[in-house]
Amino acid sequence: MSSAKPLDGKVAVITGASRGIGLAIARKLGEMGATLSICARDPQKLESAKNELLTMAPQVFAAPVDVTRPEQISTFIQYTQKNLGPIAILVNNAGVGWFGPAHEATEQIWDSILDTNLKSVFLVSKAVAPGMIEQKTGHIINISSLAGKNAFKNGAIYCASKWGLLGLTESMAEDLRQYGIRVAAICPGSVATEFSPHAGKDPAKMLQSEDIAHVVAMLVTQAPRSFISEILIRPTAKP
């Protein structure tokens, strides 16, 4: 990175940014000089995140948004573009999990996981892409999972959402690269957050939210003539 603030003047949108991986990514991009537009479902946690981020980022807008609702996404993105400027970076981080045998899941559980982990990426990216196409530049980064590559017991619905996300990401990358827009997926292993229980694992040996934020920082500071389309990230030592 050639500048202490390589993202000065850039607007970054991060979904699911009130805690965990999303908040760590927002912190990192804010420290790099980006103007932040963040959303999540929990207004209280979102306000707390905003107050923290204002200590490091030049400007922060925060809005409670359900990213499975296109009308809420449209309002959020339009406000961001009008009041903060063109969106240069989109990090689709919002996600939920449910772990159990697929045959015991309800249709409501299926819809909740697929709508949040997969459909929301389609909806938010669809809202942001036209502005990036007009600017002929941009980064769309989708936070996937190694569960998008490796099946495991009780993970059928979560894995389905993440396998679908990788297919969506790869195809979006092909659709948008002609406009100078780089689309990438980050696939972490287990991260030490409150997202899901990790029984029997040592949190100190697990990936940390800051590890994912570091990868995002790398992706948005690539040289313009190439792009990294997918990154798999594992802890150094097995937890």
Notable features of this structure?
41% helix, 239 residues, single chain, Rossmann fold, alpha/beta, 6 helices
Structural notes for this entry:
This protein is of the alpha/beta class and 239 residues long. It has a single domain (11-233), classed as NAD(P)-binding Rossmann-like Domain (Rossmann fold). Helices cover 41% and strands 17% of the residues. It has a seven-stranded parallel sheet, with helices on both faces. α2 (43-53) links the parallel β2 (35-40) and β3. It is globular and about 45 Å long. 40% of the residues are buried. The mean pLDDT is 94.
User: How many domains in all?
Assistant: 1
- CATH class annotation: Alpha Beta
Q: pLDDT average, as an integer?
A: 94
Please list the strands of the largest sheet in the order they lie side by side.
Answer: 3-2-1-4-5-6-7
**Number of E strands:** 7
* Order of secondary-structure elements: EHEHEHEHEHEHE
**How much of the sequence is in beta strands?**
15-25%
Shape: globular
